[in-house]
Design goal:
It is built from seven helices and nine strands. The protein has helices at residues 42-45, 67-70, 89-92, 94-97, 120-132, 178-188, 212-218; strands at 2-3, 23-26, 29-32, 54-55, 104-111, 118-119, 163-164, 167-174, 196-201. This is 4Fe-4S binding protein.
Length: 239
Amino acid sequence: MRINKEKCIGCGRCTDYCMLGCITRDGKKVSINEEECVDCGVCLRAGVCAADAIYMPDENFEYPRAVRMQFSDPGVQHPALKAWGRGTEEAKTNDVTGKFGYGEYGLLLEFGRPCTGTRFTEVEKVTTAMRRLDIPILEDNPLYGLLEEDGSGRFKKEYVNEKVLSAILELRIEEKDLEYIITTILKLLEDVDTVVSVGLVTRFGENGSLPVVDKLAAMNIPVRPNAKINVGLGRPLIP
């Protein structure tokens, strides 16, 4: 994002709308730290600028900068997968889409959320370690297309320093590997310099139970009560 200095009247109303604190006011001067800005578009869509001074420059739509808005603005589509909302809608509606079936789990690692942001350098700490440990990274995920093709888990150098509001890494875990992978991944996250929200996608049993809750408790991992649960608006596409 950018501020037109000729239009800006320095009121500072926009500063409260930047989740990452990239918009600051010094006297009558308001500026955006473009290096830290993730191009989420919140300040523009909020419509709080009386002078219409906030705008998105054309160069922000070009690569590698364009990945910022693709991973930060849910209204921008990921061009490779044609997915919206940071590209994980299949996992978050799993009871209908059946992306993860019975006997397996989906592990979601959301880097930078809530409202801290992340550079891909932090995600890379985990993706490279995963490859060394032979833990696969799901290919039908927007992050996969930004990785080097050599299987190292490293991001392509043009993307590695880009900053986004959040990036979700997805893994598929088989029942037998649940404890090993979760404990291994949680250990890796200790070296990551941002907030990481961890989610586990599972299927309800026929009797409405969630056996994985007891398994996580045995690993001393608490389960938050405010999980996202599909309300049954459809039948699973995959058993």
